[in-house]
Structures are given as C-alpha cells and as structure tokens.
C-alpha cells in the first residue's frame, strides 16, 4: 500500500460517508438505510429474523494471516449462516466497527470491499452501523436481519425421536486451515526468512478465511418442500452442535463415524499434521455448515443431493448421545468446542 | 463484592443461560428469543426500525466512575433514543458483549441488572446477542429494533424552510457531569486520600451516567396528532445535530442563545468550572434529547408542553446556519462535536 489516509482526517461522519457512498440498496423493503438514526424495513406480512455476532481481534481472528478483505467477507457470512439456520432468508445487515489509528482508510476500504462482496453475493442490504475509535484492536459487530414465511422458521428444540441427523458439506476443514496458518505463523515468527508453505492447501485455508453460508441448502429445502424438524449452523464443531440439538429437543442420538463427511484435502492435511480427521470433523469449529434433523419420510427427498450427508438419528433422552466408531466402539459425545473464556 | 465467580467456570453457554434465565419476554410479537441462532419477531403490517451502537471501554466510558449497572442501563437507552428519533417505538434489542477475565460473573450481573431495568422501563424484549472473551477492555454492542406505523417515521432530511426548530428537555448537563467526574478522577489519581466532592451535583452526574430516552415526547406527538417534519437525537451536541438537519434537508437555520434550555443545576456547575453554559449547551454531547422541526401551524399544539423549547427556525440554504447571541452578535454555527478519531 503506497497511500495512507489517516482516519482522523475524515472524521466519523466523513468516514461513514466514505465507506458507504458506493453502496446501493437492493431490497425493495429498504425504506430508510445508512445515514439516519435507524433503518426502516418493510415486511409485507413476513416474520423478521435477527441475529448478531461480535468479532474481536486476537480472539476471533489474527490479522497476521487474515487479509482484511476476507475478514470483511467472513464477518458478514457468519451472521448470514445464523439466519439460514432458522430456514430464513437474510435481507439486511448492520455493521459496527471499532478501529484504532493503526488502521488507515485504505485498510478499511479493503475490509469493506469484502463486506460489500458478501452483500452482493447474498443479495443483502447494509442498512446501518456505528464507526468508532478503539484504543487497541479491531472490533467488529454485525447484526443480520432476515425474513421467513410465517411459522416456517426452524428452531433447535423441535427434533423428534427417530429423526435423521443430517449435515451439509464437509467438516473439519476450517480447523485444519487454522492449524496450518498457526503453524506457519510460528515458523515465521521464529525465522522471518522462511516463506509460508501453503502449497496445495487452498482448500483448508479457504474454508477458514473465506467460508460461505449455505443458502443453497435453504433453497433446496424450499424447492423440494422440505422443512427440517430442527436446525442450527455448525460454528463450534459438530459434537457441540449435536449436543445442543439433543439438549434443547430433550432427546439422545446415535452418530456414526463412517458417515461423517470429510474432504480429501482435509484428510491429507490431518495426516500431515498427525491429527485424526474424525476428531477434527467432530470438534473443529467454523465450518459454517448446517446440521438439521429430518423426518424419516423425507429421506427420499435428499438422497440425490450430494451436499447433504445423513450422519445419525435422534433417540430417546435415556439412550444418551452416542458416537459409534468405524472400529465398532461406542463413546459418549462430549462437547470439545472451544471455550473462549479459558483461552 | 465478596463473591467472585470466574467467567471461565460457566463457559459461554453457561454464561448466556446465567445472564438470561430470569428474563421473560414482554412483546406479543416475540416468537423466538434468546437461545436459538436468531430471533423472530412478527410485525402485523408495521414497519421495522433497526439501529445499532458500539460502546468501547476507554473511548465511550470510564469504569473508574461508571457503575456497571448504570452502564448496562445507558447502553440500552442510547439505542432506544435512536429509535424514538425516528418517531418509532422500540420493541426489541440484541446485546453483545466482549469481556476480559478481569470481570467476574458478579460484575456482569450488575451490568445486566441495568440492562434489564432499562428493558423493563421501556417495555423492551432482549432477544439475542453474543458473549465473547476480549483480550482487554469491555466491548458492548447493542442493536435496537422498533416498529412504526407505515410511513409515519421521521427522517433528518425532510425539514422545510420556516419550520420551527425544537428541542426536548435541557442541554449541556451530561457534558458538565463528565467534566465534574473527570476532574474528581484526576484529583483522586493524584491523591487517593481525597474523597470525591459530588455534593449537590446529582443532576449533572445523573444526566451523564443514567440518561433516559424521550419516549414521553413521542407519546405526546401521537396523542396530539403531531408529526415532526424532521428529527434526530442529541448525542454529539446540538450544534453538530442542527448542522446535520440543515445539511440533509438542504437548508440553513437561525438559532437563538436566549432560547436554549439549560437547567439551573447545569448553569451553576458551569459557573463553578469557569465554563460558558451556552457553549456547554451547544457543544456538549450525550444529552439524548430530541431535536426536531415542526410546521409553524403546529406551534399551538406544543406551547403547553414545558418539556419542549423552540430554539430557532429553518431558513434557505443561502442564509447559512446562524447563531444569535443574547448580546446581539451573530455567528456561523460550527460543529464542535467530539471526533473520536482525534482523541
């Protein structure tokens, strides 16, 4: 970067103008957008869905290996993923950021390029936010708003005994991408002459740095007249999420190792790092896939969709939450998901 | 505080359960609330209003003199103020916080006591959020959602020439409270034996630490069939806000010093600190009053409301934005509002 504009030279309002001037709203329902006290959206009888996420530098992302454009993109996508996980369609976001004067306007432009790329891809309006100085670190807060046909939203608590447990895409890739980048960071810090070795690792690095939300799955449900009985997105790891579904639905489950979808690229990366791909798939976070339960009668509707794997089924509460290995062993599922407060 | 529970001992989900377990939703429109991927609210043909604010420790608040309960209360109120400023009724909030392990669960309880007190007072449902570890400092992000009768919302850009400029309550008090508390903090840091001298300063301290949003003004509008032609809330200072109204409405204005509402307690505090009360009223932030413009024909409707002052009127763009002093001088209004990026 050759140019550097101090953020102070624009001021907060100048900065907001600067960051939003090229963005046009897309939703017919956007009545008032950025530039007033609040945004107004019209709903035509649909129900409104709201979700929010806070992303903090050093906790949720490391700018040493996260390009700002990717960070902007991901900040939006992880919120959209929560809206899709309600079987809803995201329509609007607000984006608040806190930034220290270590960032230039050019750096922020890159971040917002990613934000707007995600908005364009998913047909979302950015309708507001707040831009603030921070003493230290980059703070990102996104709220996503969506709409859903009345009473077609899908909660976590409504699975029934016998329902199939399904997951979209594949698991563990983002965690392996993180493992790789953390390893390369450590090598670099010890010896800055060594260039990062990311060859052939595009897949897992992309899973971490540029995840996508599974709009295609929600569209598939609608086209095929499927309403899952329960659903959530996979952000903390499938073992943690399946325990949420069981707890909130007051049920147990059986999960099968042989059914867990793991990409070939993830398997070979796990092998390289001496990790068990199954453990990565169960406990790795940030895959942003959808986990959902289906009535067994709906099984025929999903068999032709290669992006959906059936990984188990719901049982009575008394049967517990069980994981069956390829070798024939059975374990209780434990949430190994990351507890940020122990970090 | 005698008890101290480490946040890590609860984990994120335990913490969320803990913080939300005693909160019952109040709005009939709340269909899904805390505990799922996103919240669902129903609207019955009303329009949805969304606003969001990010509050960062050391930038927006100083925990040395801000009780956590007050901070929780204020975090909600400043967002509701933005919704009222649209002539809308807030109905729901999401609350995300980032906290370091310097905070105990008891400290967070105090914060949420304030959050829930504000929700109860203003009849708001807390419907979601995100709770995260932070490396340093307390991060608060609030999104407020409200509803408005279709097309009764009030923007900043729709004032007309000749409209009266009105403001609710009184101005400058929060800035004087901040001045007092910053002075006492400095004295304390220099000599911890000296106790803070806050006697008789309840009013200005309260204006800073426990502001209220002007729901009463919005209710008054509705009862008296008033729709302001433009409106915003006073967060950065009335001189900054009036320039926003003028710029966005493409107009000029005349403001009169003798008409600015300043409380007696604020006048005497300003006198004590050697400050000009008019400068405090013009440029002090965080009053969370409403500034709005009215057609002259509506003047009779507001004369009996002692909480509303007419402070000037809108003019043609070419006439500029003018401030007329008691002494008969005229100045161009300049935004002295705080630019956080220069701090």
UniProtKB/TrEMBL annotation, chains A, B:
Matching CDD domains: ThiL
GO MF, one annotated term: thiamine-phosphate kinase activity
Residues given in the record as substrate binding sites: 60, 286, 338
Assigned EC number: 2.7.4.16
Domain PurM-like N-terminal: 35-148
Binding site for Mg(2+) 4: 37, 51, 82
InterPro entries noted in UniProt: PurM-like_C_sf, PurM-like_N, PurM-like_N_sf, ThiL-like
UniProt-listed SUPFAM superfamilies: PurM C-terminal domain-like (SSF56042), PurM N-terminal domain-like (SSF55326)
Pathway as given in its UniProt record: Cofactor biosynthesis; thiamine diphosphate biosynthesis; thiamine diphosphate from thiamine phosphate: step 1/1
One protein family per Pfam: AIRS
An individual GO BP term: thiamine diphosphate biosynthetic process
Residues the entry annotates as binding Mg(2+) 5: 236
Keywords associated with the record: ATP-binding, Kinase, Magnesium, Metal-binding, Nucleotide-binding, Thiamine biosynthesis, Transferase
Keyword Magnesium attributed: yes
Record: residues binding Mg(2+) 3: 37, 82, 233
Highest taxon listed in the record's lineage: Bacteria
Top-level EC class as recorded in UniProt: transferase
Reactions catalysed according to its record: thiamine phosphate + ATP = thiamine diphosphate + ADP
Chain residues that bind Mg(2+) 2: 53, 82
Cross-referenced NCBIfam families: thiL
Additional free-text comment from the UniProt record: Reaction mechanism of ThiL seems to utilize a direct, inline transfer of the gamma-phosphate of ATP to TMP rather than a phosphorylated enzyme intermediate.
Family as reported in the entry's similarity comment: Belongs to the thiamine-monophosphate kinase family.
Function as written in the Swiss-Prot or TrEMBL entry: Catalyzes the ATP-dependent phosphorylation of thiamine-monophosphate (TMP) to form thiamine-pyrophosphate (TPP), the active form of vitamin B1.
Protein name: Thiamine-monophosphate kinase
Organism of this sequence: Panacibacter microcysteis
């Amino acid at each position: 970067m050759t140019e550097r504009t101090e953020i102070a030279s624009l001021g907060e309002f100048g900065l907001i103008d600067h960051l939003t001037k090229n963005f046009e709203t897309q939703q017919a329902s956007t009545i008032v957008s950025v530039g007033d006290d609040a945004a107004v959206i019209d709903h035509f009888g649909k129900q409104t869905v709201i979700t929010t996420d806070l992303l903090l530098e050093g906790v949720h992302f490391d700018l040493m290996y996260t390009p700002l454009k990717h960070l902007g993109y991901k900040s939006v996508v992880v919120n959209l993923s929560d809206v899709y996980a309600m079987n809803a369609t995201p329509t609007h976001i607000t984006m608040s950021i806190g930034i220290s004067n270590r960032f230039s306007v050019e750096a922020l432009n890159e971040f917002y390029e990613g934000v707007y790329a995600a908005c364009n891809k998913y047909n979302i309006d950015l309708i507001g936010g707040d831009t603030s100085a921070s003493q230290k670190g980059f703070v990102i807060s996104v709220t996503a708003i969506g709409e859903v046909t009345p009473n077609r939203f899908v909660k976590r608590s409504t699975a029934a005994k016998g329902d199939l447990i399904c997951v979209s895409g594949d698991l563990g890739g983002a965690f392996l991408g993180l493992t790789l980048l953390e390893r390369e960071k450590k090598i670099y810090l010890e010896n800055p002459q060594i260039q990062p070795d990311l060859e052939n690792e595009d897949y897992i690095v992309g899973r971490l740095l540029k995840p996508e939300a599974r709009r295609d799955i929600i569209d598939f449900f609608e086209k095929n007249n499927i309403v899952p009985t329960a659903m959530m997105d996979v952000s903390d790891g499938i073992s943690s999420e399946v325990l949420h579904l069981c707890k909130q639905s007051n049920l147990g489950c059986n999960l099968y190792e042989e059914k867990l979808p793991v990409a070939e690229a993830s398997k070979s990366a796990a092998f390289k790092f001496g990790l068990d791909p199954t453990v990565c798939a169960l406990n790795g976070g940030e895959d942003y896939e959808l986990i959902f339960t289906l009535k067994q009668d709906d099984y025929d509707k999903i068999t032709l969709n290669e992006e959906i794997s059936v990984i188990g089924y719901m049982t009575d509460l008394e049967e517990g939450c069980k994981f069956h290995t390829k070798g024939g062993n059975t374990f209780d599922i434990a949430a190994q998901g990351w507890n940020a407060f122990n970090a």
